[in-house]
């Protein structure tokens, strides 16, 4: 029974994590397809007019950098780098539509694109983590400021409420204990003070409700 209870407790968390993971994967795939598709169109145009596979390789290096920059993690960038190298070899180098691994400089291009992808992914991931930490720190600072403002407001409100209440309480006590010894003018003044303090309290409460 304890195992079932534990499974029931953890299942909602997993249910929340799975859609998030799927969203991240879908985002990475769509971004990669978009960047690589646009890069392929540009490469086709460059190659059509220049017949220079070096320019095409540079386009795919830039595409790998963009993929690594705008996706999460390292795997997508490495996959894009491998795809770029093999695609350039297959489509844009002679013999066309065939693989030729004996081309001079091919290993250098392959390793270069992998290095570019890995370095860009590492740097981007680090920046994202630092940005996340800064955002969390800012949130904590904002919460601390809110707590400070709330405490100051409570102190101010308690002070503003306590002062007229003490006056009303003191005047009421004076009327209760010394009513026979007070003349009418003094009584009238005390009644007026109590009324004024009560009206002032009503105004404070209405202002608080408005806020």
Structure, explained:
- The chain is mostly helical.
- Helix content is 87%, strand content 0%.
- The chain is built from 5 helices and no strands.
- Helix 1 (2-50) packs parallel to helix 3 and helix 2 (53-70) packs parallel to helix 4.
- The longest helix has 73 residues, at 106-178.
- The two termini are 51 Å apart.
- 14% of the residues are buried.
Task: From the structure above, extract its key features.
rod-shaped; single chain; 87% helix; 211 residues; 5 helices; mainly alpha
Which of globular, elongated, flat, extended, rod-shaped describes the shape?
rod-shaped
Strand content: under 5%
> Which class of secondary structure composition applies to the elements?
mainly alpha
What oligomeric state is this?
single chain
What topology does this entry show?
Layout: H1 2-50, H2 53-70, H3 75-91, H4 106-178, H5 184-210
Report a brief summary of the structure.
With 211 residues, this protein is mostly helical.
């Amino acid at each position: 029974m304890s195992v079932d209870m534990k499974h029931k407790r953890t299942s909602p968390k997993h249910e929340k994590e799975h859609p998030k993971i799927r969203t991240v994967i879908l985002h990475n795939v769509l971004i990669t397809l978009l960047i690589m598709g646009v890069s392929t169109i540009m490469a086709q145009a460059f190659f059509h007019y220049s017949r220079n596979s070096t320019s095409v390789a540079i386009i795919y290096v830039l595409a790998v950098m963009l993929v690594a920059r705008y996706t999460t993690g390292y795997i997508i960038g490495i996959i894009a780098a491998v795809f770029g190298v093999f695609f350039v070899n297959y489509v844009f180098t002679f013999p066309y539509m065939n693989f030729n691994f004996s081309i001079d400089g091919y290993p250098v291009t392959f390793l270069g694109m992998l290095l570019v992808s890995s370095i860009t992914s590492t740097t981007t991931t680090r920046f994202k983590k630092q940005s996340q930490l800064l955002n969390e720190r800012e949130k904590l600072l904002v919460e601390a400021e809110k707590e400070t403002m709330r405490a100051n407001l409570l102190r101010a409100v308690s002070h503003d409420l306590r002062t007229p209440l003490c006056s009303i309480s003191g005047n009421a006590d004076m009327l209760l204990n010394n009513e026979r010894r007070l003349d009418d003018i003094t009584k009238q003044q005390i009644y007026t003070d109590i009324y004024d303090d009560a009206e002032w309290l009503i105004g404070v409460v209405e202002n608080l409700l408005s806020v």
